[in-house]
Backbone:
């Protein structure tokens, strides 16, 4: 199974500042079939289901503000929030979809400093 | 994008059984892969089981293989998860989730609100 490891486990950032969350996979999730990284990011607010933010490592989902961006390739990925807003307080998860079983990172809790 | 509504959760004793349902609307249900993802209280996300839209192929996490069965009724736009031999570690909110396209990808653009399963004596 591919193990997804996020860092840090928790993060406190001031409003308007940049937040960066890292995700590392135990093996490459770059698929040869389409040369795309099979990596997604989700945001989960308290009491709500997760919401898709990013797929194919860097494609924003519909309706996601452009302050959210994804980058990386192979085994190392980053979710960046360019200017933190109050509504961005949440837990963020990365997920690979390279093969079954699909696995998620352990989550990163983002708070306001 | 569509809507997914789970039901069937509740309190069950260890060793017992439960059947979850997921009612879908707003998209051509039969064309999409649908998956169950669970989240134990205060914990992260765990993929449980998926079923393809094209040929009905099924997939299971090792933790539930042999105990859980996923199925779908395309005539009723409904997904099921039959859970047998339940254990305390199966306690979680179970989410029904959908692939964004008819070509199965493995990421999920639509999530239900979830149904809570509690396994306890």
Residues:
């Amino acid at each position: 199974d591919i193990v997804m490891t996020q860092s840090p486990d928790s993060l406190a950032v001031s409003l308007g500042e940049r937040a960066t969350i890292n995700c590392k996979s135990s093996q490459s999730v770059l698929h040869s079939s389409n040369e795309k990284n099979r990596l997604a990011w989700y945001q989960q607010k308290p009491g709500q289901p997760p919401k898709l933010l990013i797929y194919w490592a860097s494609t924003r989902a519909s309706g996601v503000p452009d302050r959210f961006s994804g980058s990386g390739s192979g085994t190392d990925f980053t979710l960046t929030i360019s200017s933190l807003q109050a509504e961005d307080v949440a837990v963020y998860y990365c997920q690979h979809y390279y093969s079954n079983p699909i696995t998620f990172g352990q989550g990163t809790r983002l708070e306001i400093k | 994008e569509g809507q997914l509504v789970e039901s069937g959760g509740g309190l069950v004793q260890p060793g017992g059984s439960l059947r979850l349902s997921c009612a879908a609307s707003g998209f051509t249900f039969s064309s999409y892969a649908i998956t169950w993802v669970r989240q134990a209280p205060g914990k992260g996300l765990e993929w449980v089981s998926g079923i393809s839209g094209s040929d009905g192929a099924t997939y299971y996490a090792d933790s539930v293989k042999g105990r859980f069965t996923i199925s779908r009724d395309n005539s009723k736009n409904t997904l099921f998860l039959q859970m047998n031999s339940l254990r305390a570690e199966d306690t979680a909110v179970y989410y029904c989730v959908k692939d964004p396209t008819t070509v199965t990808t493995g990421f999920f653009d639509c999530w239900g609100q979830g149904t809570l399963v509690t396994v306890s004596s």
